[in-house]
Design a protein that fits this description.
- The protein has 5 helices and no strands.
- With 117 residues, it is mostly helical.
């Protein structure tokens, strides 16, 4: 399989994580707002999160402005890790923390590769 097809498939699978998360927040925002409130994050940010997840997720999927889309999503993953998953004594939270870091790392690789052209 040509490398281009593998790259598109990989980006699409990664983008799907964000696109589906944004759609879920639109479909039922209450649990997300409650989770944000529990972590002292203002609910007014939810529309921005949805826009980022959908917009940058779609851009990542189609390969548009890759360095910016992947970079923005990487920063978002880092913010999520440090804003929501810092209870490293809790096994689930620790797993989510490192998952967010790993996704951010993959997105940084995409951003750097796109930046180089």
């Amino acid at each position: 399989m040509p490398i281009t097809m593998v790259t598109i498939a990989g980006r699409s699978l990664l983008a799907l994580l964000f696109i589906l998360a944004g759609a879920a927040k639109i479909a039922g925002p209450k649990p997300f707002l409650d989770h944000m409130a529990a972590h002292h994050i203002p609910g007014v940010l939810l529309p921005l999160v949805i826009a980022l997840e959908l917009g940058a997720g779609l851009a990542l999927m189609i390969g548009w402005q890759l360095s910016f889309a992947a970079g923005a999503l990487a920063l978002f993953c880092l913010a999520t890790a440090f804003g929501f998953h810092l209870d490293l004594a809790d096994k689930v939270e620790r797993t989510l923390f490192f998952k967010d870091l790993a996704i951010a790392g993959g997105l940084m690789v995409i951003a750097a590769s796109a930046w180089r052209g």
